[in-house]
Amino acid sequence: MVVNVRKEQVHLGLYLSEVVAQKVATALREKKPAAAVIAELRTLLAPATAAVGKHHPHARGLVRVRGLRKAEAAGERHAPAARAARHAARLQAARLALHWAWAYLAKHLDEIAADFIAKTDGPEDGVRLGFTFRVPGLAGASALFTGAASSAPSWPPSGPAQTTLTLHPGPRLG
Question: How many helices (H) and strands (E) does the chain have?
Fold first, then answer.
């Protein structure tokens, strides 16, 4: 996941292995209700998303922050309180992005079903979902991501103003 503070965007990439992608494609072909497909997908991805839900050792490096001014980014980088605040803000951003992704999929699954199935029919293994959330006010929360503040008036956002989703076959983009 990448939080681009300056552009006020959050990018979330979810890779579904071939096994998981085929299970989802089968459910979509069978025209199962979106809620059932999302519930199964959440269950299948639970081990991978657990790192985002708490201070899990594998959570380190899952969330990158871009668009900070060099002076902001330098801040008090090594102070324990700043590190803890920075880590908490990143985990909260990741949890929010996952929540937004699930909500988007629940609402738009029928619209993307044919494209998703087509991506699973190719020779590549799995499918990558690329979400881009536009989050107005994110620039005002930049101090959270540097550890310079523990709260910001625009944080947490109630939701993205706009969401786009792109589907790509295989584990790598481009």
Answer: 5, 5
Neighbouring CB atoms inside 10 A of 36's CB total 11
CA torsion, points 119, 101, 39, 32, in degrees to nearest 10?
A: -50
Strands 64-66, 2-4: pairing is: parallel
10-residue stretch averages of pLDDT, the chain, 174 residues long = 92 93 95 93 84 57 78 57 79 90 94 96 93 90 79 83 95 67
Rg, the chain, Cα only: 17
Dihedral pair phi/psi, residue 123, rounded to 5°: -75, -15
DSSP string, 53-110: HTT-GGGTTS-EEE---HHHHHTTTT-HHHHHHHHHHHHHHHHHHHHHHHHHHHHHHH
